[in-house]
Amino acid sequence: MQTDIDPRSLIGRKAFDRAGTKIGTIDEVYLDDATGVPEWAAVRTGLFSRDAFVPLEPSELVDGALRVPFERALIKDAPDFGVGRHLSPEQELQLYHHYGLEVGPSARPTPDRDFGKVAGTEEP
Question: Are 21 and 46 in contact (CB under 8 A)?
Fold first, then answer.
């Protein structure tokens, strides 16, 4: 997908699977921690359903809608991590495996050395 697209402009757009079947509407966009590039979209799959995470690469923006190159059934079966929270490297790894994608560098689990530290504080 184009990386110069403002992620906020994706919210509210429709998403379709590889056959052109509507999946739902994009609720949130998740950025890569290291690069800031949009990496995942959470798509609301129905009125009483949940959000499904879909990869923005290799998806395409076509005629104002997101075209996801996977079947709707695979998308609806994606791991459910809830929305509004940060995706951990382990969760991203699960999503990469679910979609059969090559694992990106930001999805490889690394120890979180900053866990529990307050931003702006320095160790002596």
Answer: no
**The pLDDT of residue 49:** 74
Q: Which residue has the tokens 């798509």?
A: 43
Cα end-to-end distance, the chain, whole Å? 44
**Other C-beta atoms lying within 10 Å of the C-beta of residue 119:** 5
Helix (H, G, I), strand (E, B) or coil at 86: coil
Ranges of the chain whose pLDDT falls below 70: 1-5, 47, 104-124
Residue with tokens 């005629």: 63
pTM above 0.85, yes or no: no
Report whether 10 contacts 29 (CB < 8 A).
Answer: yes
